[in-house]
Amino acid sequence: MTLAPLINARVLAVVRAPSAESALLAADALVAGGIFGLEITYSTPDAPAVIRELDARYGERIYLGAGTVTTPEEASMAAAAGARFLVSPGTRPGLTAAMKATGLVVLTGALTPSEVMAAIEYGADVVKIFPASLGGPAFLKALRGPFPDVALMPTGGVTPENLDAWFAAGAVAVGAGGDLVSGADLASGRYDEVERKARLFASAGARG
């Protein structure tokens, strides 16, 4: 297990799509725009099938994983489909153990210092700070004080304009959802807009 692919990707696009087809089109737009970290959430219909198709389509060109993992079965299905990392919105000991058992990189959600400590105790490789929009980069920087050696990834409230601030605050990578892949854009089929936003994030990430 290595965090190098996550660190190199810098931005994980959180794809919550209304259909499998929409998720695939969004993923294509993201890759075309220069975003190569893709988190396909289980709120997307047929998420494992989407992951399987994207793995076949892009292989090692992308860093592909599953998000909103809430059961051990979802962790196993994502791993079998070709995911290379798993993300849970929160931290539970049994679920984290099941995620760890896949051998994939495990990211579990936390917000408070106590929750960060629990995520570390249960074995998360990366702690997903969510919703990071509540505290902003200043909150992430404050967490780095007691947790200087913990890999932290803020998700929520990440934009091209504040991307530098998140990394300066100590983020190992960032998760970008609605500001990158908005539900409105997907619902109306504006995949060109997804690609445009991806280019903005990619450009900001390259400067960081």
Structure notes:
- With 208 residues, the protein is an alpha/beta fold.
- The chain has one domain: Aldolase class I (TIM Barrel, Alpha-Beta Barrel), CATH 3.20.20.
- The protein has helices spanning 4-9, 20-32, 47-58, 72-81, 93-101, 113-122, 136-144, 163-168, 183-187, 191-207, and strands at residues 11-15, 37-41, 63-67, 85-88, 105-110, 126-129, 152-154, 174-176.
- Strand 6 (126-129), helix 7 and strand 7 form a beta-alpha-beta unit.
- Helix 3 (47-58) runs parallel beside helix 4 (72-81).
- The radius of gyration is 16 Å and the shape is globular.
- It starts with a helix and ends with a helix.
- The model has no long low-confidence stretch (mean pLDDT 96).
- InterPro entries: Aldlse_KDPG_KHG, Aldolase_TIM.
Which structural category do the helix and sheet elements fall into?
Answer: alpha/beta
Along the chain, the helix and strand elements come as: HEHEHEHEHEHEHEHEHH
Tell me the CATH superfamily. Answer: Aldolase class I
Domain tally: 1
Mean pLDDT: 96
Shape: globular
Topology-level CATH name = TIM Barrel
Radius of gyration based on Cα positions = 16 Å
Strand content: 15-25%
Give the N-terminus to C-terminus distance in angstroms: 25 Å
CATH architecture identity: Alpha-Beta Barrel
The CATH class assignment is Alpha Beta
Q: Give the quaternary arrangement of the chains.
A: single chain
The helix content, as a percent range, equals 40-55%
Please outline the major beta sheet: 8 strands, parallel
As laid out across the biggest beta sheet, the strand order is: 7-6-5-4-3-2-1-8
Give the number of helices. Answer: 10
What's the total number of strands? 8
